């Protein structure tokens, strides 16, 4: 008899115990799925609510191997994990979604870009570099964005180089350099696929970035784009997850160019910042959809039920230590404002500490409230 995917006898392991894992657990409780987490931080957001929580390095072969041995299915909430251990577990018969070969491609931005080219996925022009001195040989490519091939996250590992003089601030590690794109908007689409090959796509959203720290400052759902662009974005997202032969949830970030062309910027093989709004705004959240996809369940209805704006709550500059959410009670008095606090014990400048979704039938009104709310709440110590 096949083991049921719910109840105490089924063990779903998650590599990573941050806020994405925390929101995944909150959805898993509704389906009586028990989640077991591994994370290097003993006080990570999942530590208090996971069925079991193991403290250990995500990049250590033996730690990941030992963690996975008694799990029925393994998934990730971060790409920077030990792929070799996951490959070993997969060989032993463990189900791992997204699959290790997919993670290997996506965690290395150079391999990711090469995959786009090989599979006719539209993307920006790029070159590979091994170290900072290589940039001298690529002065004809200026201006460009330099991205570390591995290890970057939340805007870290990314820098803009606009002139030869700015090459002094370049990363001295293997990187990709991408030609600047003259874009109108940055969009994101989340797509899911289960083992049966069923695919479901969420409506596109628009992302507004803080240029100083390269983090999403506002997310608007749905994106204000025409039907042709929406259909193109959804087709590319479906094409990508199919060509990767991936099981799980995939976030696809796009540049919408001024000439109407869509270029894939980056992808993430897990729940993503661009899908937090789905908890309140869509029939199925990205977290529930991730569970459905990796457990080979029917995929949920992705249709939008109300418009929304998402704001990232990040640590204020000049504050580090025990966290205070200054203004939280004030924003709770505003209709349609839904805060999500991640449970991190300490704040530091630009650290993601939570997010707020503002829902309203009128997206423009939600935007108005969102910009006011952002000024009302500050994460301090």
Structural features, described:
The chain is an alpha+beta fold and 381 residues long. It folds into three domains: 12-96, Rossmann fold (3-Layer(aba) Sandwich), CATH 3.40.50; 125-179, Dna Ligase, domain 1, CATH 3.30.1490; 183-380, D-amino Acid Aminotransferase, Chain A, domain 1 (2-Layer Sandwich). The protein is built from ten helices and 22 strands. The strands form five sheets. Strands 10, 11, 12, 13, 14, 15, 16, 19 and 21 form a nine-stranded antiparallel β-sheet that branches. The protein has a five-stranded parallel β-sheet with strand order 3-2-1-4-5, sandwiched between helices. The longest helix is centred in the middle third of the chain and has 17 residues, at 227-243. The protein is globular.
CATH homologous superfamily designation of the largest domain = ATP-grasp fold, B domain
Outline the biggest β-sheet: 9 strands, antiparallel
Share of residues in helices? 10-25%
The overall pLDDT, averaged over residues, is 95
Quote the beta fraction: 25-35%
CATH secondary-structure class of the largest domain: Alpha Beta
Annotated CATH topology of the largest domain: D-amino Acid Aminotransferase, Chain A, domain 1
Structural class: alpha+beta
Could you say what the CATH architecture of the largest domain is?
2-Layer Sandwich
Number of domains: 3
C-alpha termini separation: 53 Å
Unreliably modeled segments? none
Shape: globular
Total count of strands: 22
Number of separate helices:
10
Task: From the alpha carbons, calculate the radius of gyration and give it in angstroms.
Answer: 20 Å
